[in-house]
Structures are given as C-alpha cells and as structure tokens.
C-alpha cells in the first residue's frame, strides 16, 4: 500500500513489481494524476513545454498494463490505523470512504507549498501538481494587467520568474533573506540576481509581502506593488499531517523520521521523499532536502527493503541546479555560510575560468566556489554559476565528495579534454591546485568580505592588473603595480600587503614573488570579479 | 634546464618559478614557438579557429616578462652529457652549437607523428606544431582538386576529417584496424563512423595506404584513391632519440622510463609528457598515454620534486574526448576489448538515455557503455557517444573510478537535476542501477556480439517492443510479444529465452517477469539500438 503516486511512491511501486510479480500493490493518490513531472511545471507555465501530455509520464492505465499496479487517483488517505494495519481512503470523486488493509505501508506524500498567513493569502497561487499548473496557466492566460509578484526567491520562484517574463509579465521577486537561492552563498547568488535583473525581473530582497489585496501587495517596508498575479514560492513543508495523526515520530524541524531503511518508528510503515527527514552527509544531522533524486532513489530502496533485499540509504549532499535565462547555477554540499555557522575552520576558493579552452570559439565564463575543511582538506561543498558546463563541474565535485577525494586531489582527476569541452587543466583540476597551494601554505588568501577590515587597519592593497584594467575600475584605495613589473618595483611594496587582480591568478603569481621577498602577502581570492560580483 | 617548451616543459618552468624566484630556468625549444595549443591545430586548419595568434598562448618575451624565464626557440638539444651535466644545443637559426650546464634536466620533448615507410611518404603532411599547421593550412588553401586522404582514424585523424570537410574537401579516412578510435569499442566507434559518413566523409577500415603517388594513393587492397592532400595521422611515437642516445632507460614499448617522481634512470634527469611511460591505473602496467592533461600535471609535479616538495604522480586513466560534427565521443579507463584481452571477468552495460528529461525540449540521445569487473564490481572503464552531456557523464565516471566508487554505487551519486540538465535518475545513476541488478543476479544479459551463437543454438528470441516497432525493423528470427502483453502470453515463451527491446529497459522488465515464472532468460544488453548500432 503506497500513499502518493509521484516520484517516491511510484518508484517504489514499479521496483516492487520488478522484484515481486505476485505482490498486491495499491497506489493511492490524492490528486487527479500520478507520475507527473513536477520539475517541468514552471516550464509549462512559461510555454517552454507546450505539450501538457508530456508532463504526464504514466497514467493509471499504463501502469496497470505494464506493472499490474492498482493505481487510484482522487483517493486521499485520511487516516492510518497502525494497530489494525488499515488505512481509510476518501474517494474525492464521489465523496465515499473505505478502508484498505496493508502488510507494508509506504508514505510518499511529498511536501506542501508554504503559504504565509497574511491577509489575502487565498489569492496566492502555488505550484506543486497538475491541478496547480492548470490553474496557474489559466491565470497567466487570463490576467490582462501583466504584473506578477513572486513571494520567495528559491529555485521554483526563480524558475517561475523566468517563465513569467517569457509570457510578457512584469515580474517582481520578493525575498525575505538578503539573497536569492539559499543553497548558494550571497556572492554567488548575486550572479543569478544580476541575470534576472538583466532580463527584466525586479528583485526585492530583505522584505516580505505582508498583505495581498485585489490587484496589489503590501511589502514589509510599507510600499505596495501592483500584482495581478501573486505566487507563493517561499518553500515547502513536509506533508506530515497523516503521519503525525498516526503517531509516527517526526524530526526536529518536521518531516517523518526514518532509519537508513526508510522505516518509520512503526516497522510496518516506511516513508520516502520530501516528507521525510534525511541525513546530511557532512554532519550527519537531520536535513530536509526536497529533491527528486533522493525521492526516486529512496522509493526504489524501500521496495528493496520490503522485498527482503539488503539496501540502505546514504546521507545526502543535496546537489541542486537551476537554469535562469541561460545562466546555470548549481551547488552541492555545504555553503561557506553554513560551514562558518557550524564553526568549521574552512578554506574558501573562488575562480572564474572559461568552460573550455579560450582559443576555441564560444568559450563561456564560469564562476566556481569551493569550500574546504581546513583541518582535513575534505571538500565540504561547491557552487557554480555561469555558462554551460557548470553542472558538469558540480557533478564531478559531488562525485569526488562521495568518493572521499580531498580538495587537493581534485588536481589529479583526469577529465575529458578537447578544446570544445574543457581545458588541459580543467576548472576542477585548477580548484585542486589552488587548494593544494593553500593547504601547503604556498599562498594565503583573503575573502572579499574580509577586505574592508584589513584596509581599515591600513594594510596596503596592490592591484597587479594592467594600467588599463586599473583605470577601467578597481577597488578604492588600491595602488597599481602590474604583475610583470613587480620584480622591478619591490621597493614600493609594504611588508604587509594584499594583492589583487581580475580573477586571482595574477594575484597569486604576485603573491608568490612577494612571499619569497619576505613579505606577508595575501591574495584577494577570486580577484576583482568576486569582490565586485561581476 | 628544460628540453621542450610546450605542455609539459612550460608547465614545469612556470611552476618552478612560482616555487623559486631565484632559480635559473632555461627552456630550449626546437621549433619556432613555445606554449602553443597543439589541441587547437586541427580547428585552425578547418577555419573554426581563425586567429592564428590565439594558438600561441605565450611567447618567449611574455614568459620573460612574467616568469623571468630564459626561453630559446629554434634551439634543439642534440646531446646530453650526463656525467658532465651539460647539454649540447644546436641553434637552428644560425647553425651554431654550444653547451649549457644543468643541475637538473627536464626532458619534455613530446612525441613525433608516425609516418609509414611507404613510397611517397615524404608527401604526407603531419600535424604536431605551428610549422606543421602553417604548412597544412597552406596546402589546404592551395590544392585545387579537393580530395584528401587521411591515414589513420584516431582522434587527430577524425578531427582533421571534420575540418577538411569544412574546407570543402572530399575526405577519405583509411584506417588499418576494423574500427576508428581505438579507445572505444567497435560498436561505440561505429556511432562516430556513422556520423562521419553522414557528413560526407568516406571511411575505409581494415586497409592501409601502401604507396603515395603525386595525386593519388594506393591501398592495401590494390585500389587507388584520388588524393591531392595526404595526411599521416596514424599515431605518435615518443621522442626518445635524445634520451636513448644518453643511455636513459626506456620502457617496453618505447618511451622514457620514469618513477612516480618523473625521475629517469639518472637522478638528475626528469622526463614528462608524451615522451614518457606512464602507469595504467587499473593494471599498473606501462602505458603510453599522449594526452595534454597528464603532460601539464606531471610538468608541474617535476617542478615540485625539484623544489624539494613531496609529490608523486598517480597512474593514469586516459580520459579522452573528441567532437565530430556535433557528436561527442569520450572514454575513460579500459574498453571491453582490453578487459577481455587481459582475461578479466567483466560485466558490460550499454544504455541509450536522453541527456536530460525527455519532457523538456531539446533532449539529445546518448549511448553509454560501462565495463565492470565481475569479481569486485569495480568500474574498469566507460565510453559515451552522442549529444551534449557525454563529456559530463564520462567525467563523473572517471572521478568515481578515482574515488573507488563501485559500479553499483553509481546509483547513489547525487547529480544535479533540473529538466534542462539531467534526469531525476541521471544516466550515470541508471548505469549504477543496472550494474547492481547484474551483480545481484536480478537480471542476466547477453551482449550484441554473443547473440548469433545463441540463436544458432536455437534459443528463442522475443522482441518485446510494440508491433509497430517490430514491423519497422528488428532482429531476424525474433517473435513479437509486447512487454505489456507478456503476462497474458506466458505460454508462448520457451524455457530458455532471450528478450530484447529498443534500448534494454523494456527487455529488463520482461526478463524480470519471465525469470519469476521460472524461465532462464537473458536480456539483450542495449537492445536493438546497440545490436543495430543505431
Ligand atoms: C515546481 C517544482 C519544480 C521542481 N523542480 C525540481 C528540480 O528541478 N529538481 C529536483 O531535484 N527537484 C525538483 N522539485 C522537487 C521534486 O519534484 C520533489 O522533490 C519530488 O517530487 C518529491 O517526491 P515525493 O514522492 O516525495 O513527492 P511528490 O512527488 O510531491 O508526490 C507526493 C504525492 O503524494 C500525494 N499525497 C499527499 N498526501 C496524500 C494523501 N494523504 N493521500 C494520497 N495522496 C497523497 C500528493 O498529491 C502528491 O502527488 C520540484 C518541485 C516542484 C513542485
Ligand atoms: C593535433 C593535435 C591535437 C591534439 N588534441 C588533443 C586533445 O584534444 N586532448 C588532449 O588531451 N591532447 C591532445 N593532443 C595531445 C597533446 O597536445 C599532447 O599530449 C601534449 O602536448 C604533450 O605535451 P608534451 O610537453 O609532452 O609535448 P609537446 O607539447 O609536443 O611539446 C614537446 C616540444 O618539445 C620540442 N622538442 C622535441 N625534441 C626537442 C629537442 N631535442 N630539443 C628541443 N626541443 C625539442 C618539440 O619541438 C615540442 O614543441 C593533441 C596533439 C596534437 C598534435
Ligand atoms: C515514471 C516512473 C513510474 C518510472 O519508474 P521506474 O520504472 O522505476 O523508472 P524508469 O522508467 O526510469 O526505469 C528504471 C528501471 O529500468 C532499469 N533500466 C533502465 N534502463 C535500462 C536499460 N537500458 N537496460 C536495462 N535496464 C534498464 C533500471 O535498472 C531501473 O530498474 P530497477 O529500479 O529495477 O533497477 C517514476 O519514475 C515516476 O513516477 N516518475 C515521475 C515523477 C518524478 O520523478 N518527478 C520528479 C522529477 S520531475
Ligand atoms: C601557458 C602555460 C605556460 C601556462 O602554465 P601555468 O602558468 O602553469 O598555467 P596557468 O596559466 O593555467 O596557471 C595555473 C597556475 O595558476 C594558479 N591559479 C589559477 N587560477 C587561479 C586563481 N583564480 N587564483 C589563484 N591561483 C590560480 C594555479 O594554482 C596554478 O598555479 P600552481 O601550478 O603554482 O598551483 C602552459 O600551460 C603552456 O605552455 N600551455 C600550452 C601548451 C599546452 O598545454 N598544450 C596542450 C593543450 S592544447
């Protein structure tokens, strides 16, 4: 018996059939559809995906034909009787109720979009299932005024912003935090924000919507915004109503508590997907990671466990990616802010490589960030934003984390290279080189957010770029000594000095020269580009 | 003292400067240029890269200014006196000779294109450096007849074929082996061959050029081909003349022998790059891997060793990639043929996934192949051919191999997923699922090259695709029972049966159903597509 017929639930159902031809498998789904592509919904709103049918990967009929599954849509499970091993099902089509018994019960009810308890909240649209997307598509087609406010600048909010721009809306994202996309650090999220703004999206951070009126919203700063369309995309909360009512244990921040076999506190009840608590791969702490990959994987795993196979869930990294107007932003593992909040000693690296050899036409710029455990050299996390190839680098680093490859060892990865695809030293290798140099004390860096305090202390700042780069814009207070002149102008350099260039490479070269002249020197990590968030 | 001023040599020189401001560093380069982009040369021939200057990443002057390097072009080292620690340098510009002494000597002379000893061989052009590319570009611009024969279907041969097509040539590749691209297995290389043919390249395998006349070539089968332009791209041999003359130890199949510190049999002489013997990561055997990544990495490593830092070279996987008319082909580690030749018990998996979610527009097909050690479940190698995203999957698997992640554990990698970038179960995860099923005996497969023998034995073959797919073309001798009908038509199925579908997925489902009915069943790995090389 499976509650919820999409990513986690249906993966469990199909795998269970493959493992056991004779099992009786019933899937109960509250909405009118199963096996749909949640992740494609924003693109249907924007008309990127035009065929609604393409979102429906399977139907009850096709699942019956191929897998012999008993799939019932419009069927809400409203209660679980754990002692009697039955569930009460409400048939939403005709209002009737009935009970069904189970040997094993799998809960895969997902998560519900959070709607803030503010006046007018009932007018806010959310996006989770096919009914939602139909409603939103209709609202998009109907509204004559073309002004939309999206509450929340997470992945879904940002995807919807792009898609509503495609539809000709004036779009404002209102985000309570000081940045968009919490899985990124602020300076990386700034690149996404810049891209959104360049494409006509208005971004308001550090504010929230406090009231929704008929054609406008009020913000926490008292201002109002026209808003024919209001969307709530401020996050999701695990669907735990049913589990809680049944007395199943929940996690610290909500979510159904499960062990590594996805078993709840009741041995006959399993749970997977957005509804459950996962384990963080770095700290082992409880984590809510509402992503499709783990939902699918753990759904399959539950089937294995029920069929008596040895299988256990791994802690999660939370690798995620989003595309915004051609920019890719992706992340895996921990952010700098998270590592600092946890009190870890870390090393941070920013680079701005090209996605492939610069001499081959069409190279696009990337910004990458690596967060490294200063004690163990372990990779804690990575982030990327930029042209194509960001997802590749983040996937490689996610794999490296899983394989226990240290930051310095990234230098030794053998990644495919031809001029259209990468560089002889791939950007990931380069992160490894830099990590090794930091680990070995060959270079010392300073982060963009640490610079002001040092300058206030009176430390000298040298811009080692060319005079024309210096003239075109730099960091206030910097003097200019191009890297190629440095050996001849050592007498102009103070004993304690910070150097910077455009991306960090020439600064590193300068730092090596200066360090060997006995000076204390730090290189501005990521250079002017990270500092200026270019 | 460094012999050779490109990938390996110049990487050593610049790193050494960063480690040691006071070192005297002399780079001796036979050709007229240093630090050039070998890998870009084919694209300059084809006019994809139009700016010749873009190929020259550094010049002696720029390396002097930035790194204080003494770089001498047109300077061939013609002898090494190891006892006296000197080299004899021939100044190719003025014909003079002089000796220079060294404390440490780094040999990075690269490799030389192999030219077959056949009549007319002097007319065959090769491509290794800037002089070569200038000559080839001139020949391309000059020849009025527009017929080109490329001897050798390796990476460079294939890249040149594409580029000569861009230039309007009629191009024939003549390859001695039965397939192009030795780092791929024959059925994967066939996809590249198909792409070349679709774009007008003629491909002749299993033949060689035996003589070159003024406007034609003769093949081993006696036929002749018009050939205004003849190119030798049949491989490279390590440049060991100098090392051999100096009495340095060489490897079994040529190449300078070095230890994990890139030290030759003479402790004061180091060697890196295409000229040296590397270690294979899987067998530990000697290997010649002429790729830019290892050359750059090991160049840097030699500088570390000379500067007294702890560093040692890792064995190589040989990850490589090539782009051909928009198709990407890549490989890492061992091929099936290599593993079989080495007598390993292996499992082989072929899949044909889409590079991203099918419901999002623009999905492109990939063909992936995984070679797995049947005893340990270790990944021995992987290959891919298809649309964009092949390089990503091969890089992820190369990283997994390095991290000791087993084939089944690929299922648990958390790879970035949004509909434009991948699937909730990424193609790499899917390889892991299939590997796990094979490991656990949930499914048994048969390879495309094993099918004929089984059919000859009279084993039943069932095509489980739809009747219309079956009608459109299938494997001779197969009967058709669509997977969705199978449970109702079990009585038509023999006790020993092979099933197949288009790519392997439905065949797997059918195999699970049939296995549970007590039959011996094998699924044709990779389905009709692998069998038919589609
Ligand atoms: C718009 C959008 C975009 C997304 N984009 C991405 C992305 O790009 N990448 C990514 O990794 N993830 C993405 N996700 C998240 C991903 O879709 C989820 O992580 C995944 O679907 C979770 O699977 P699940 O099985 O836990 O829940 P769901 O897939 O949500 O399925 C749960 C189902 O259970 C049903 N249900 C709930 N309660 C009951 C009940 N009592 N009785 C019967 N049925 C019930 C619900 O109706 C629902 O259909 C996106 C999600 C959304 C909404
Ligand atoms: C056309 C082409 C395309 C390629 N494409 C790719 C690709 O896509 N991906 C990839 O990974 N690799 C590719 N490669 C291979 C890559 O370029 C080499 O692996 C790499 O350059 C090897 O570095 P190296 O330092 O050993 O030798 P090289 O870069 O060849 O440098 C050796 C230098 O030493 C000089 N030299 C030799 N003998 C002497 C002497 N006695 N005295 C002074 N100087 C001497 C030579 O003139 C030469 O310039 C390609 C190579 C070519 C030719
Ligand atoms: C559509 C859905 C029912 C498919 O479930 P599924 O059958 O488990 O998944 P797939 O069709 O991808 O097939 C995977 C199975 O085929 C096998 N397989 C795939 N390709 C194969 C091949 N070429 N050869 C052999 N086997 C293959 C895999 O091993 C796996 O089987 P296993 O789990 O027994 O190991 C389910 O994924 C679903 O409901 N998805 C939609 C919801 C969703 O995921 N939303 C979030 C993202 S938008
Ligand atoms: C051009 C060439 C001289 C460059 O050598 P290089 O200086 O070692 O390489 P790069 O310019 O890529 O810089 C790498 C260095 O900068 C550092 N670096 C790179 N980006 C950085 C950043 N953002 N911040 C700090 N340091 C950075 C790296 O750590 C590395 O230094 P290290 O080796 O001391 O650790 C050499 O690669 C060459 O001759 N290449 C052409 C030939 C070739 O490779 N051909 C085959 C492929 S076509």
Automatic annotation (TrEMBL), chains A, B:
Keyword line: FAD, Flavoprotein, Oxidoreductase, Redox-active center
What Pfam families does the annotation carry?
Pyr_redox_2 (PF07992), Pyr_redox_dim (PF02852), Rhodanese (PF00581)
Listed cofactors: FAD
Domain Rhodanese: start-end pairs: 455-533
Is this entry keyworded Cell membrane? Answer: no
Task: List the InterPro entries hit by this protein, alphabetically.
Answer: FAD-bd_OxRdtase, FAD/NAD-bd_sf, FAD/NAD-binding_dom, FAD/NAD-linked_Rdtase_dimer_sf, Pyr_nucl-diS_OxRdtase_dimer, Rhodanese-like_dom, Rhodanese-like_dom_sf
Ribosomal protein is among the record's keywords? no
Q: List the molecular function annotations (GO) for this entry.
A: oxidoreductase activity
Among Gene3D superfamilies, the record links this protein to:
FAD/NAD(P)-binding domain, Rhodanese-like domain
- Stated family: Belongs to the class-III pyridine nucleotide-disulfide oxidoreductase family.
Q: Under what name is this protein listed? A: NADPH-dependent 2,4-dienoyl-CoA reductase/sulfur reductase-like enzyme
Q: Which organism is it from?
A: Propionicimonas paludicola
